[in-house]
Amino acid sequence: MRTETPPLIRLEEYRPSDYLIDRVDLDIRLDPHATRIDATLALRPNPAGRAGAPLHLDGDDLRLVSADLDGAALAADSYTATPSGLTLHAPPQQPFALRLVTEVDPTANTKLMGLYRSNGVYCTQCEADGFRRITYFLDRPDVMAIYTTRIEADRTEAPVLLGNGNLVESGHAGADRHFAIWHDPHPKPAYLFALVGGRLGKVETNFTTQEGRAVTCAVYVEPGKEARADYALDAVIRSMRWDETAFGRAYDLDVFNVVAVSDFNMGAMENKGLNIFNDKYVLASPETATDGDYAAIEAIIAHEYFHNWSGNRVTCRDWFQLCLKEGLTVFRDQEFSSDMRSRPVHRISEVRSLRARQFPEDAGPLRHPVRPRAYAEINNFYTATVYDKGAEIVRMLRTLIGPEAFRAGMDRYFADNDGRAATVEDFLAAFAAVTGRDLSAFARWYERPGTPRLSVAMAYDPQAARCTLRFAQSLPGETGQDAPPLVIPVALGLVGASGPLTNATCPDVRNGVYVLDRAEAEIVFEQVTEEPVPSLLRDFSAPVRLDFDLTDAQRMRLLAQDSDPFNRWQAAQDVALRLILDPDPARADAFADALGRFLDGEALADPAYAALVLTLPSEGEAADSLSADVDPDAIHRARFDLRARLGRALRSRLERLDAALAPADGAAYSPDAASAGRRSLRNAALDLIAAGDPEAGTQRAAERLANATNMTDRLAALGTLALIPGQAREDALAGFAERFADEPLVLDKWFAIQAQIPEPGTLERITRLKAHPAFTMTNPNRVRALIGTLAFGNPTQFARADGAGFSLVADTVAALDSTNPQVAARLLTAFGSWRRLEKSRAAKAGEMLNRIKAIPGLSRDTADIVARTLG
Ligand code: 0A1
Ligand code: ZN
């Protein structure tokens, strides 16, 4: 059997559903192998649909037990039912009730879509199209219904029963069983349906909304781990409060529940009133979670909560509009985290992750517009482009119209679209309405794939005290006429020898922003009394690649003098990136001097920021800056040498910082941003010391490991040791594994650290670790930690010249494809940049892709990725 390219679903072919469902009544009897779903759907013809059309309900792997229409069994010739759909050939043309009983096996559900069991806990995942694995349905987001769900289960097996909305009744159902009835008064699409049943512990608290509604908020976790849920619960409360102040959005039910499960394909899911989470993004204690984990928990709790408005109250008309909820909600969670932490530090981490994940995607065969026009498998479009570039578009919109108009536009969007399934056009219309502006040119950001290039040239005339900046924009692969320009907000300023030139004036710059809306343009600054260094794209005001030639000295002026913290950091990154791509000892020493002055001046005033300035661009970022012939070994070596040189040059300063930042004896761990910042600078210092002097580094890291009182320091020390071959490393790894033998989420860190070692022995190590008792291919977190880290976080070993790294990842994709296609397909996206590798590696990667393509019966998920990657 040959795998065919899966058929495409196209945006231009959208049409409204022929039928609507107003109410859904579910009676679900949980059973490990034979769960019965008794569903009554209140249906009616859609006035906007085709009158008299057959009714086709989606299904996936379903077994129909019985079907009734308005109380009478359906005649055998009036419908067709298969595992993948149910069709009523001539449905009534007035409202009718369709009652369907289906049966599913949650224990056998390894795809983790629909109803499944994770560690014995019943849970669901319905986005994007999992509800059709529970019952036959119009499983599309523009069909919104009011749900009432009765859940019945064995009392010992599932003492906790949770659903969407508010609890209306609960009680006994025979000797060993019990039930709960949940009612959700808000109409919602099926992808937001959820239920949970299991043995769970909880922490809970109350919140009163600005509208005076008393809400019980709870976080449910594996019994015994309740204390590790406190931070997540606190993040829920802070999110609720923040959305009221920042966006005027209040919560709308009497309960808000979060449940952590250990087997989950993604990060978390915003089901109405019942968010279900990958436990990695809920559970935290100082002993088991790093500062990074705490920050991720805070951000993802916020993200899912914010979806209650941006996604649930206002949902998407179709899956092409995914960025409407995801880009907007990422923007909202980024703003939340910025308010909770340091805004510049957070902005830098947002941009780092955009560049690490979205830029390469946008430059490779998997590139797509933020609003795609066609897809074969929607689950492959939960991408960095939809999420992160989608968020950047919302951010640019705010920059263009200003914060007040932005807030007014958001209010208008929510008011106009509440209870509706909306589109990107509806979103932009709200901002056009409140500003009176034509946003049609701006809307091109949603349609045009690829990262734009912004080229800038400067001319300075000292006699006239005039500085001219010439801008040109282009999109890779597009030329002149057929490529109408994008609207690019360029935040900028001029920087002199001792600081920003605030007297310079330019009529085209308003509130520090120049809006480039043509292919080419020139702007002129007057009263520029000395030759300036332009600081361009401040705060990363647009997701573009900037081409602007500066000398190292000019960049170091920006690092020292610019008022924009983002561009100060960027200046140091630019110098470092050039030194990685084009090593030069003399320039590296000058860079070290500049970093030294920076550290002396302000490292202790803002340690989190200083840690970012000290962190060199990643190997991936260096690779992404090259358009062809990427040799990961050469990049690794150059980056390694630069780190070593900086470590030696800055040694005494780094040691002083290390001492100054040491926690006081007996000080309790706190995950707050300031404390985390001190730890991150201290650990960045350790990393550089070790790079410059592996022997001293080994000793210091072993010491830090021995004395660590929290996971952040412990893991940083282990990470430092992991880069230095030798017995100390092996002892440290063994000690860590023993200490955390019963902590799967901590062992994931241990798997990941080893999968990241940039040495040829790593593949053998990974093969050994696959046999470790804690490793299992059925848990997505384990697979991502061990194999995903190799594929996405270890460029030299994944792209090993002999092809062994590609082969190991391809074997995993092949093995996973039949049990969990979503995770398999996502892993396969690691091959996305294969064509940019130097020839022999690219050839090896191509062979692997073709091998996967030839697998008989490949899932649609994997077939789609492989077809597009080979493209
Ligand atoms: N809407 C979720 C992401 C998500 C998408 C698909 C899933 O299926 C496995 C799960 C979660 C979010 O943005 O957080
Ligand atoms: Zn989301």
UniProtKB/TrEMBL annotation:
Ranges for domain Aminopeptidase N-like N-terminal: 86-192
User: Which protein are we looking at?
Assistant: Aminopeptidase N
GO-annotated molecular function:
alanyl aminopeptidase activity
Q: Where is the Peptidase M1 alanyl aminopeptidase C-terminal domain?
A: 552-870
- Which Pfam family is one of this chain's hits? Peptidase_M1
Q: Which metal ions or organic cofactors does this protein require, according to UniProt? A: Zn(2+)
Which regions form coiled coils? Answer: none
Q: Which UniProt keywords apply?
A: Aminopeptidase, Hydrolase, Metal-binding, Metalloprotease, Protease, Zinc
Q: Which residues cross the membrane?
A: none
NCBIfam families listed in its UniProt record: pepN_proteo
- State the similarity comment: Belongs to the peptidase M1 family.
Q: Which reaction does it catalyse?
A: Release of an N-terminal amino acid, Xaa-|-Yaa- from a peptide, amide or arylamide. Xaa is preferably Ala, but may be most amino acids including Pro (slow action). When a terminal hydrophobic residue is followed by a prolyl residue, the two may be released as an intact Xaa-Pro dipeptide
- E.C. number: 3.4.11.2
Annotated Peptidase M1 membrane alanine aminopeptidase domain residues: 231-444
Q: Which gene encodes it?
A: pepN
Residue ranges of every copy of the Peptidase M1 alanyl aminopeptidase Ig-like fold domain listed in the record: 450-548
Lineage: superkingdom: Bacteria
List, alphabetically, the InterPro entries matched. Answer: Aminopeptidase_N-like_N, Aminopeptidase_N-like_N_sf, PepN_Ig-like_sf, Peptidase_M1, Peptidase_M1_dom, Peptidase_M1_pepN, Peptidase_M1_pepN_C, Peptidase_M1_pepN_C_sf
Matches recorded under CDD domains: M1_APN
